[in-house]
Amino acid sequence: MAHFIRLRATKAAAVAVASGGTYAFLRDPSVSANDRGGGGPALESFRSKIGDPYTVVPQRAVQESALIGASPANPLDILVVGGGATGCGVALDAATRGLRVGLVEREDFSSGTSSRSTKLLHGGVRYLEKAVFNFDYGQLKLVFHALEERKQVIENAPHLCHALPCMTPCFEWFEVVYFWMGLKLYDLVAGPRLLHLSRYYSAQESVELFPTLARKGRDKTLKGTVVYYDGQMNDSRLNVGLACTAALAGAAVLNHAEVISFLKDEGSERITGARVRDNLTGKEFDTYAKVVVNAAGPFCDSLRKMANNDAKPMICPSSGVHIVLPDYYSPEGMGLIVPKTKDGRVVFMLPWLGRTVAGTTDSNTNITMLPEPHEDEIQFILDAICDYLNVKVRRVDVLSAWSGIRPLATDPRAKNTESISRDHVVYEDYPGLVTITGGKWTTYRSMAEDAVDAAIKSGKLSPGNKCLTYNLRLVGGEGWDPASFTVLAQQYVRMKKTYGGKVVPGVMDTAAAKHLSHAYGTLAERVAAIAQNENLGKRLAHGYPFLEAEVAYCARHEYCESAIDFIARRSRLAFLDTDAAGRALPRIIQILAVEHKWDKSRQKQEVQMAIQFLETFKSSKNAQFHDGKHK
After folding, report:
1. Is residue 430 exposed (0-12), middle (13-18) or buried (19+ Cβ within 10 Å)?
2. Element (H, E) at 198
3. Strands (E), 197-314
4. pTM
5. Looking at the predicted structure, is the pLDDT value of residue 366 above 50?
6. Which 3 state secondary structure label does DSSP give 447?
7. Is 79 helix (H, G, I), strand (E, B) or coil?
8. Among the listed ranges 89-98, 130-139, 354-363, which one has the minimum average pLDDT value?
9. In this predicted structure, what is the pLDDT of residue 6?
10. 356: which residues sit within 8 A by CB, 6+ positions away?
11. Residue 15 clears pLDDT 50, i.e. is over it
12. Which helix (H) or strand (E) holds 122?
């Protein structure tokens, strides 16, 4: 019988429990497999390769050829299935250990849960509260570990991540004391990984910092707020950055490539590879590997069943709905988090990419490719934030609403999704197939490290060096500075083609320059050069900084293979403003058609698929609501 062990933060950095060829790794957050050291010549070699300003990722056709070339006589060391944060993290970790790695993703990098997150990098204030009140040392060490990883994610992708102050309103003096003490403990647990110290603000100071905050809520007067810091990220761009960094490190990464069956050794029944279908061309091919890592998120059970039809489900899917509101709902640079609403759930409002994201729900759901938010979930979020704001909360203000499926690993003792632990699990219940699931965005790097450790053990692999990802910056991060955007503003112009065909120069304004710098890091100048030299300097949508040049750049250098890839994952237009994304579609498809040489039939297909995709984002204009109270 296979062991199923949740990753508890107990003492042992890599303790393997073997039973019937199955492994579970127990992690000690205070000790790392790479000892958090320098990494030596191997690390420097990868840093120079990834940080080279002239470096380009291999073309998609080259990556596919590398996978096809993995034969029974010359297999990959590891084949990763799933291109989310964890899967791409595994590919990067394994490639930088000197292993031969391939990755296939059915849709696009970050097309699932990884692009539909809360956008927070956090240690888990709620988990700390549970640790204290339940005297749970395991939970406490998980918070320690998450806070360490939070700091590293921000340092390894500084252009895509930053510290965000979050305000907790207090309507009773007891709450002031309780939250102040709790958040000071959070600071203490963070230790040297602290972003900034938490502090108390009076009611007057709080309203100055957060003008839309209600002075009266729940029939009580605001006594003040406690502000603490967590991290915030652009999740799908971070995920795409991971995929591109893995490709630069030598991994053969391929999006829109689906595993349709596993290849097995006839004698031992061990999995030796996979039959893959390129969903763009319909072409099928076999690729062989010593170990397959299942990092398919909510879909990992379907892969396990592909290997063994009797596999018992591991995933308890939970739906997390978020809505996007105009920027005036929250000030730039300050979030609002209510730890306990009337029904005991957490609700938040966070500034994100010039808009306000609010959420979230946590309810059982079914696993689908395109989850949609229910109207009652959207109304729940509007209801919850309404109590804490002095601005009228209206359903018509919802610019976009989406649902993401959290792949929670089931605990048979849990009664609801709130009490299921978010620990990650590494599990090999079939020879040659290592499954990694659970966890959260913040800890993707250490999850990947554990998965690669398990794969090395399973396949008896010989890595060239230890894990290097702790101190490895992602593509665009090396040498980036918050003031980098000034170079773009001063040295580039946006050449725009008018409807009459005339080319006119436009200023590279601060908003566009900042956006490019934060989205592409040190590679932003490449995008700016396309805007200037190829007359692709126009904005794609009114009121948003996304440029035509980005479509061409992403098609050439970020494996952007469809209109949906661009509006949802390369830019975030679908998430920020569904209707604006719809209006930008014709021009996006026009540019992609030139880059990928699409015929009229493919362009028409792209329009239909993108419109269908956008309909799952319940903005006020494409949602059916007639009797909601937020008119």
Report:
1. buried
2. none
3. 199-202, 216-217, 220-221, 224-233, 252-254, 257-264, 271-278, 284-294
4. 0.92
5. yes
6. helix
7. strand
8. 130-139
9. 39
10. 324, 325, 326, 327, 329, 330, 349, 350
11. no
12. none
